[in-house]
Amino acid sequence: MNPLERLQIFHRVAELASFTQAALSLGLPKASASSAVQQLESQLGARLLHRTTRRVQLTQDGQAFYERSKDVLADMEELQAMFAQQPGAVGLSGRVRVDMSSSIARDLVIPRLPELLQAHPLLSLEISSTERRVDLVREGFDCVLRVGSVVDTSLIARPLGLMRMLNCASPTYLARHGVPTTLADLTDPQQGHRLVHFVNTLGAKPGGFDYLDESGQPRSLALPGAITVNNADAYQAACLAGLGLIQVPVLGERDALLRDALRSGALVAVLPKLTAPAMPINLLYANRRNLSRRVRVVMDWLAAVIAEEQLATNE
Length: 315
Prior knowledge:
- By secondary structure, the protein is an alpha/beta fold.
- The protein is about 40% helix and about 20% strand.
- The strands form five sheets. Strands 4-3-5-14-6 form a five-stranded mixed beta sheet. Strands 12-7-13 form a three-stranded antiparallel beta sheet.
- Helix 1 packs across helix 4 and helix 2 (about 20-25) packs across helix 3.
- The longest helix has 24 residues, at about 60-85.
- The radius of gyration is 24 Å and the shape is elongated.
- The model is unreliable at about 85-90 (pLDDT under 50).
């Protein structure tokens, strides 16, 4: 095992605070990960990690070494990739790990991936599609494509634009509760309107019906709901089943499920003058001086895909 591999293993152990999880993510036996860190410590003459039966934690020397070696590791990985190309191969090589919502992955990014991989056949992508807020550093993500407000100020946010919101309901739901046209309709107990609640983590308090008032200020109206979900597909499925109103960001023509449901009449857009504020979409990445070239290229490609979709939506 060469010094660069040992450094890569140390970084993954430090980020995940676990030899077991680091070994799994790298496809190595746990013993190999432990041995690699021990060899690195012997080479440096310093203890980098505190090890107990329950947790792994950076020492003071380990924290300093981790921070100083971030850029070194990124530079070395890029240099290694330059001279590791197979004969006749073009483009980048190596792995990039990205997280994004399931709808963006399904409708926007994955259908366009062949063009990226055709340009860079040695590139390997790991795509996580989830609505939960992943820990970018701890879980080893190179970048995250996220819709909504940025709450982690330790990350760098690259704004990619705004996604307009749409209120939807099924014909079955509207036949039962009536078509709402005002806020008063939503709160009328005789109509009994309700939301399908969406949360990133089950157990969290769900929000209400979000809208902009006449002065353009964001407001929220508390409404009941019989079901709470934490996945975009389940959110739309619950609406299709007549379980409540939903408020969804519009991805444009490639938002296949929403587009087809609206065109077929399975879903109906309602309250067009009471939509929620547009949601920002950002690329998030860790605060480091240098990113490897393959990560920068993937991020630029993702930004271009989002920009093209927004342009097509606005035409």
